[in-house]
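Both lines are retained for reference:
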Amino acid sequence: MLTKHEQILQYIEALEVGEKISVRQIAKILDVSEGTAYRALKEAETRGIVSTIERVGTIRIENQQKKIERLTFAEVVNIVDGTVLGGHNGLHKTLYKFVIAAMQLEAIPKYIDHDSLLIVGNRMQVQRMSLEHGAAVLVTGGFNINDDVKELADQLQLPVISSSYDTFTVASLINQAIYDRMVKKDVLLVEDIIATQTPAFLKEDHLVKDWHSLLEHTGHSRFPVVDEELRVIGMVSPRDMTGAAMDTPVSSVMTPHPHTVSIHTSVAAAANLMVWEGFELLPVVDKQKLVGVISRQDVIKGIQISQKQPHMTETMEDYALKGFEEERTDDRGICLMGEVTPQMTNRLGSLSSGTMMLLIEAAVIRVLRRLKTTDMIVESTSIYFIKPVMAGSFIRVQAHVLDIGRTFGKVEVEILHQEEIVGKALVTAQTSSRL
């Protein structure tokens, strides 16, 4: 039987996109307390199926986790510090593209369509034409709109947003927000590597003999144990079954309250959990229900495939290393050389600690990769800042392997500017073979 919390989430998911919902409404319809309704509504917001919009309320929206590179018009309002002048009921809609109105009036219909956003100044005819063709409007320069444009926006439920920023600024802000979403999309998630078929599992009323049958049928020995609602309540392994009689209930020998991961957990986080807790298998859940399992082999294969795939966007590490060249110093050492750009500095104009850490880790991983065929993960770092390094300075990041084994590596790193040491670090890394 579903809990009240799960019933509320199920009710919210069944609502049509654009429908309003409130804590009081949920409490009244489903006969639950307002506290229970509030907690469920917050989880729905975290899942990306509802959004709270100023002056409108909480709205059922498209699942943003499936369309992570897209924004709602409500999010655009926050991004550009805007004010909604009309069409409040359309703020939940999804923005597919934006267009700058730099063309003649008669050419505008060629560039806009439904669910797009036209960025324009105080050109009233353009604003109206945009709405008539199903596109929302972003008015730059802080200009207002005519009453007839506002009435049309309300009628068509297409937002008209005003921002005091200029056209270049708002376009840059929206583009950056979309870019940030795309970076997140590049991250390999557990849902990307789990098998599509239903995983093998045991129920709490199954017996040890059922485990033996499942073992013989699948060739696997570790299985999640679930209740009637498919919620994971335990795990069983050969160690749990040692000495157990065939008619013993699984629930009495299982390991209760096992660790699980969500389908939205990153593969890197799952790998870290497996390493430190020593897990061979992790149940994967969605909305608290079992949807799959991942093994150490799944995680290793996923990480290897991910590193071979080209990324469509740049991370901070990519950006920091863009101007650096790699040089091999000896069989156990490399050197990264480049200039400190203003974007790599802190508010005082010196190389920031975060950027220095990125450079150190990059040098460590690269030098260890020369000696090991497996992937490396930084485990611990002791770093010492000796002198500040200003923007425009040419630096060298020298990494030398002190010790390396089957599952670990220790690397000493020195950061030099004009032949002077400005920072040092001792880094310990582990190999993915520890999985």
Notes: The chain has a mean pLDDT of 85. Residues 71-186 form a domain with the Udp-n-acetylmuramoylalanyl-d-glutamate--2,6- Diaminopimelate Ligase; Chain: A, domain 1 fold (CATH 3.40.1390.20). The first strand starts at residue 20 and ends at 21. The chain has four domains: 4-60, 71-186, 191-306, 316-434.
